[in-house]
Amino acid sequence: MQQLSEQEIQRRLKREQLLLMGINPYPAELFEVNAYAKDIKENYERFKTDYKNISMAGRLMSMRIMGNASFAELQDSTGRIQIYIRRDDICPSEDKTLYNTVFKKLLDIGDYIGIRGYVFTTQTGEITVHVTELKLLSKSLKPLPIVKRDEAGNVYDAVTDPEFRYRQRYVDLVINPQVREVFRKRSQMITLMRQFLNDKGYLEVETPILQPIYGGATARPFTTYHNALETTFYLRIANELYLKRLIVGGYDGVYEFAKDFRNEGMSRFHNPEFTMMELYVAYKDYYWMMDLVEEMIETIALQLHGTTELPVGNHLISFKRPWKRLTMYEAIEHFTGINIAEMEEAELRRVARQLYVHVDASMGKGKLIDEIFSNCCEPYLIQPTFIMDYPVEMSPLAKRHRSKPGLVERFEVICNGKEICNAFSELNDPIDQRQRFEEQLQLSQRGDQEAMMLDEDFLRALEYGMPPTAGLGIGIDRLAMIMTNQASIQDVLFFPQMRPEKKPE
RNA sequence: GAUUCCGUAGCUCAGGUGGUAGAGCAAUACACUUUUAAUGUAUGGGUCCCGGGUUCGAGUCCCGGCGGGAUCACCA
Known about the structure:
The chain is an alpha+beta fold. About 35% of the residues lie in helices and about 25% in strands. It is elongated.
C-alpha cells in the first residue's frame, strides 16, 4: 500500500463522516436520469424546451461556493453543465446540514452526484440547472487533476504526460473531452465499416485466436500453452487462412474484425495487439477490390466527418474517388528516376546502396525492391494511393500476376506515408501454394524468424477447390489514426501496451 | 535493440557556477445570495524516480538502474 497523500486521507475522513451521518457514500439503488447536459444546452434556448422536473447524474467537476448559494459543474456522459445550488432550496426546513455540511464540506471534485431541478439562464447568460434535490451517488477518494478552460478556450494545467494518460486512461477520459471524442469516432468508424460490409451482403464471422499453426502474415508470434491438450498454441498474427477456408466452404463473402498479435517492436505505429479487418470475396480479383476499398473509405470519411477532405497532421488528405494507382515499379521510378523493372539481384543491390538504402547479404530480389520502396517512396505518399504488383517473393499467399512474370496481383494503399491496407487476388492453386510454403520453410531454415509455417490443413482445403477470390486486410488502428488525426497508435487504443507498472513495495 | 531527451507537491511547471525546496491551480479554515480559470485572507502538503559515489554539504556533479517520450532499426 502506497502512502496516502494529504488529500486522499482527507477524502477518506469525509467518507467516514458521511457514514456517521447516516449517508451512504455508495448507495445501492438506481438513480433515474431523464436529462443530459448536451441536450439541455442545445435545446433550451433554441427550442425553448421547458426543462422542469429534470433528473441528472454525473461527476462534480468544479465548485464555486459563495455563502448560501453556490455554482458547480456537473459532467455527465455528454458533457458539462453548470448547476446552481441554493441552501434554502435544497434544505427547505430548519435543518441546513445537507447544504452546510454535506455539500460544502463533504463533497469533492470527482464525486458522483444525482440532482433534480429545473433549467434557467443566469444573469451572465449561462444555461444552468437550478437544483432542488441533491444526492451523493459515489464518493471519489482520489483527487482528479483539474483542467481548466477560460472563455477564450485557453487550457490551464492540461494533463499531457503520456505515461499518466495511457496508464490511467480512465482519468484521461474524465478530464480530456477531446480524448472521449477520438474514441467515439473510432467506434463509429468501425460501425460504419460493418454497416457497409453488411449492406453488401458479406457475413461477419469469428475465427480462432489460439492457433496451432500461425499464418497469413510474415511476423513473429506470441506463444502459449494449452495444458489439457499438452500443445503449444500461437496467438494469431492474421486470420487470413481461416477466412479462406470459409470461402472454400461456400460463403461468397466473409469478414472479421480481428485482434491480431505480433511479437515485435513497439512504436507510435505498432502495438503488440492490434485490430485488422480482413475481407474475402469469391469470384473477384484485386482490381475489383481496389474499387471496393475506395468506395468504402470514401463512404466512411463522408459519413464520419461530412466531407472527404480530412486534416491529418500538416496535410489535408482527400479520400474522394478515384485514388491514384501506381505499380510498385512506377512508384520507384517516379521517386528515384530509376527503372528497376528488368534488374537482377546484383544490380538492385547496387541501386539500393546508391540510394542509401540499408541492405544486407540475406536480402533477395523481392526484399531489396521492398526496401527501396519503403525508404524512397512510402514516406512521400500522403494522399491515398494504390501501389500495385509486388514481387512474388514477398507475397507467398498472392496469385501470380496474369501477365507480368515475377509479380503477384497485390496492392497496398499508402496514406499519410504509411500502409493502411493490403490486398490480393488470392492464390488458389494448391500446388503453387505448397511450393510457396516450401520456399518459406527454406527461409526459415536460413534463420528468418518471420517466415511462414507450412499449413497442411489449409493446403488440404485448397485442394478441395477455392474459387477465385479477392482478399483484403485493413489496419483499423492506422485508419483510425487518420480518421481522428492522431499521430500515435497509442492515442486510438484505450489501453496501449506498456511495460507493467512497478509494484510499490 | 541503438541514439537522444525527460523524471521536483494531487496537476502544470520554476529551481545559473553545489549551500535550509518554490509558484499557480487543487486541498484545509474563514468571509461572501448569480458566479464562471470566481475572489480575498490564512494554513497544511515533498523519499526532488531508485541505488551508489565525489564533497563539510547533492534536486543540482559522476556511475549504475527503473520508467517514459522522440528518432532510427524491424514490422501492419
